[in-house]
Every structure is written in structure tokens, then in C-alpha cells.
């Protein structure tokens, strides 16, 4: 297992001692030492990376990293976040917001519109939650002529969707997604997509990764 490559991508926010971040210089030295890497891996295996780094002779954690590079995980999360906001995206018919959405989402705009992937049905409280955050981000993106607010909303929601789904279907991937970003970068409790739509998008990205 290439712990060096794997640990190099772990967000430093996961490396702490009772809530106190480890000294960056100490972490850097540990990453450059075989013993230090084993200690860091053991540390993470006791907490946020239990499924990814726990000893398992039948699975190499680096296979997960190799198959799901950061760019691929981020692309998967972006699509899941867009799909999770399908109801308010479909409801938006104003010319300038639609233009902005098409420019920001690219081909993924069609994913949000495709009801064969997900019908977009949500209970009223979840629909209100999805719409409010989306509207705020869309207004900010238009005002600043910057897609970043929309990307942030989609990415955070997508990480929640992937982690909540993978916690049941692929726990090692759920851990890997968490470790790539700072603690608190996603709240799995906010996930709202049914399992089948997530599986369809995941399978599409997994096929491309393979």
C-alpha cells in the first residue's frame, strides 16, 4: 500500500489530538517516515478512516485512492449535488438564471432535467431546504458573475449524498471522500436522494474510472 500517496491527500483537519491540530511540521516529518506513516494510518483507522485503513488482507486502501482520484470523487460529488437540487433547477424558468445555470452546469444541466434518473419528489420540508439554499447561491452567482456560490452548494450537498450512500454500499469510499476535505465539509444527515438515482450516477462515474 502506498501510504505516502494516500496520506498526502488527507486533509490536515483530520489529524488532531483531542481536538488540537497536530503541528504541521510534525505531520510533514511523519509523512516522510515509514514509521510515521504507519502511526498516522493507525491513528486515522481508529476514527474517520475505520473502513478505509483498518487492517484487511483482502483489500488494499490504495486501490480505492487509485480508482477514485480526487478529481473523480469531486466530479461524482458535483453531479450528485446537482441532481439533489433538481427540483429547484427544473422550476427555474427565468431567462438569466437559466442562462447562468446552463453555463455553470454544462452537460450536467441535462442530468438535473432528466426525470428518468430521478423524479425529484421531496417532502415539503426537504424541498423548502433545497430551494432556499439553491436560490441564495444562484442569486449570489448572478450578482458576482461567478459560479463559485453554486459550485459550493452543489459540492457540499454532493459530498453528503455520496457519503450517506457509500456508508451502506462502499464504506471505504465514504471514508476516502471524507478524508479529502476538512471535517464538517459535509453533513450526511442532509442527504435527500433515494438510493437508485445515486447508484445510477455512481455507476456512470465508476465505469469511467475503470
TrEMBL record:
Output this protein's name: Uncharacterized protein
Recite the lineage of the species.
Bacteria, Pseudomonadati, Pseudomonadota, Gammaproteobacteria, Lysobacterales
Amino acid at each position: 500500500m502506498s501510504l505516502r500517496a494516500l496520506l498526502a491527500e488527507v486533509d490536515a483537519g483530520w489529524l488532531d489530538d483531542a481536538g488540537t491540530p497536530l503541528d504541521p511540521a510534525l505531520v510533514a516529518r511523519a509523512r516522510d517516515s515509514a514509521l510515521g506513516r504507519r502511526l498516522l494510518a493507525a491513528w486515522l483507522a481508529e476514527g474517520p478512516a475505520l473502513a478505509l485503513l483498518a487492517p484487511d488482507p483482502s483489500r488494499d486502501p490504495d486501490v480505492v485512492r487509485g480508482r477514485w482520484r480526487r478529481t473523480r470523487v469531486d466530479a461524482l460529488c458535483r453531479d450528485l449535488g446537482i441532481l439533489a437540487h433538481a427540483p429547484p433547477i427544473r422550476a427555474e424558468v427565468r431567462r438569466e438564471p437559466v442562462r447562468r445555470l446552463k453555463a455553470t452546469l454544462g452537460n450536467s444541466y441535462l442530468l438535473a432535467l432528466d426525470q428518468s434518473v430521478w423524479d425529484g419528489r421531496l417532502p415539503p420540508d426537504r424541498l423548502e431546504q433545497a430551494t432556499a439554499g439553491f436560490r441564495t447561491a444562484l442569486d449570489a452567482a448572478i450578482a458576482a458573475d461567478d459560479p463559485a456560490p453554486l459550485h459550493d452548494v452543489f459540492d457540499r450537498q454532493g459530498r453528503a449524498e455520496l457519503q450517506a450512500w457509500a456508508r451502506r454500499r462502499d464504506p471505504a469510499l465514504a471514508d476516502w471522500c471524507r478524508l479529502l476535505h476538512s471535517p464538517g465539509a459535509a453533513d450526511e444527515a442532509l442527504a435527500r436522494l433515494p438510493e437508485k438515482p445515486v447508484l445510477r450516477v455512481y455507476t456512470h462515474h465508476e465505469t469511467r474510472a475503470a
